[in-house]
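User: Structure please.
Assistant: Input sequence and predicted structure:
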Amino acid sequence: MAGTFPDSEGSDAFTQAFRNAVAPPKWRRSLRGDGLPVVALDVDSDDPVEIRERIDKVLEGLEGMLTGFGGAACTPYARSARTAPVLPGQEYLTLEVAEGLRRTRPSKRALKLRNLRFMRDITAEFRANPAHRPSERELRDRVYSLRAEEANGGALHWLAGVRGDFFDSGVFAPLGVLIKLFGVPLLYTFPRWCWATWWSQRLLKPRRLGVLPNRRNWYGQWRRIGRTGHSLFHFVAELLQRESTRMLPAGGESTADFGAAADEARLDLEEMLLHALLADLHAARPGWGPWARRRRTRRVVLLDLPPVPDVPGEGAESDDWNAYLSSYPVMAARFLRACVKASPQLAGAGVVVVAAGRRAEDDPSMLGRWDRRGSLREGADRFRPTALPTLGQPLSVRLEPMRWNSPELHVVPIESPKARPNIRPGTEAAVLISCVTLVLSVTVGQGVARIDGGEPECFQGQSVSTPRNASTSNGPAGDDEKSPAEQYAAVRASIDSLNSQALKAERRNRPVRRVVYFGATVPKDREEAIDNGAIPELRGLWLSQQRLNAAAVDDQDRVRIYLDVRDTGTNFTHAPAVASWAVRQAERYKEAKDHRTIVGVVGFSESRRSTRRAAEILNDGQVPVIATTATADAMQKGLTYYRPMSPSNSRESAVAAQFAHNARIIRTEGRHCAEADHAVVIKDPGDLFSDELGTMFAKRFGSGAETLSLSEQGGATTPDDIARTVCARIKQNPRTVVYWAARVRNFSAFLGRYGPDSGCAGLPLTVVGSNDLTSTALRGKYRPYMQKWLNLYHTVHVLPETHPDNSDESATVFSLYVQAFTARDPWLNDGHVALAHDALKTLSLATDRAYSSTSGQDRPGTANTELVKSKLDEKVTFQGASGVISFPERYGPKPPLNKALVLLHPTADGLTVALRCGAFELNAPARTHWIPGSSQSCPTDDEQ
């Protein structure tokens, strides 16, 4: 039937928002990744009869949109019945809601509510009699018996009837103690233990890596239970015993205190039942199977919210309180409170909750932070799907003014989207099974012929053409023959030349602002200078400054950049002191409106304790910072003025752990490989970056990870000790991977000690390392080891120059770099140039926006640290040389969303891209799997 909805300002907008919430146009993405706030509609009246009529009008209108012309529901929905429970223990509205969802399910397949049924049965006796405090074993045996009775015969039904004293009588009695000794464990204890363990694993234990979200361990998440050796029934019994204490009156306790405690106890039980229901609904969410892909709507709960009566007075008995707490208005308010607390889980399960009633400001269900709106139009603007991480507060909408007696608005029923092709899901499943069987029969037949010794082949990445090097390059090669000091001086001179040009433009009244670069001292030794990264960073900054200042020639709203290069000492030792100087300069020349006015800082190529302290000083001084290759999450914590360009350690460690667990990279015999089941993690506890990255990887890898400490500054443990320990571990377990989170200098020393010196000559060594190894690995230093026993994987933040999928922006920066410098140096593919280029461009874009937003016809614009920070807080998105740079609005001190991340596999024959994850090209889908055709999905920022 067609429904009607009260006609008022914004009714059309709200009903349309409700329609889009139930049946979203882009259903697959919205239903799996978006959620909606809980909505409470205030009917705005104080007359009980009028409140009742208005609630009915609102809910009947929404229900009419769900039922359609033929009376069949377009989606499972439940509407509360507005009656108090008949039996004790039924005062939990979740049970009624679940029954409503099952009754209105459009398809013929029953809605399987395994978790809710389990929790309903396990708490049934307690809900009816809170004085009963069941033990862990009693709960287990009771629910086990109920399941066996439902089996209606068979082995499970018979075993459930076996008791501990079963063997004392009947046919078993003559055999005596011997039968009882073996019969009780085998036929009584063992089946129950298996069943209890299965439920404990299902409701308490998370997935091994914890990378992907799931609702299997919903009880462990709700009660915040970590690793434990106890069963689920232990925790449920513990909870029920606690609630029993709160639900029974105690001597000397006031009735008001008893009522509040009993209400909170019932709220805990309501939450438990609701979380169980949501776990079942989450399991029945949209997917790819024949039945799952036909689920294209959200489930709906329509809640009747009559005014809550006054609480019993001081002289009230506990029975009065129990009657009050079991009344429907209190039940509805309690259910609403549980829904608000479980908002993220409601969203994940695809449930929309809309309540209607008269809500007083002191109503317990309205306590907390609600987003209050004064009209349906305002409410419709907020009642729309949003990403789960940004799900806002519950929404309270006041229906005022309403023309309750005027003709109502006719609403069109919602039509559930139809699946194509329009065939029965059973038919589709049969066709799919037939196709899969055919494909498997062909592939298995081919695979049997290829099996050699039963071992799988090694993981194959995506090969790329040979990168430019000394033997293949046609580009200029002059720079790579200079010493590090000469190369550093040359790029400094180029930057000084651009600065001079900017000052000349400033004298012609063109805007110029200062950006300070924080870099480490370039070592004199050529080998150490390659690992340092300051030279390619400065080159990337110069390329970016050159392009940005050239673009400002024809655009008066663009601000030229004056790049102030500051040496912060070896390993950024003096970075805090330079940061203090920058803060003083920024404050001193804030209103100068010329090249002396600092708009921000770029640099910080390493995550060290000194750079963290410098970032804190700049943050306190309100100076924006755009970091280049500093990846530690600790650099971001608590800093509102800090923005990194590189993916964080948390995401990099998730990618590396997932790769080591699932990729066949451990060489066994011949050409065969296996996944790693043991990891030796090498980290430096005194290094901020190394300690954090190693700790995160070990945690994500799981119980098979072992951590060894190796300090860059020297210490009790030497690279030789590490080499001998790793050798011993590989001999014990050949499926061992080394995760190198320490610095590159120690890695080179370690490789020199491994092999003949450690007693592991000829034993393959597989290493997964961080971006710190990149420059040295790409210049070929480890090629002799790769030809013999080294199998190396390391992260990098750009695709190689010769990769066919590079964006136009990446190709342009590569080309400009080769033209200006050389194609032969080790920094061409290591990411320093691209990240520095994008860091300065990010700060420049914010500076341009600050300047143009404050300029007028008769006045020049303003751009200082304060204004630039405000523009960085707005949405910033552009195609960078290192991938898509995307900072959502008020994103905070986090890297660009799903920043590009690559795992390279350098070999003696060339480069292979083992995996690439994230956003590489604007207006193109992000890489969600390791390589094209791979079944392994990439961890994203949303999952960290």
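The first helix runs from residue 11 to 22.
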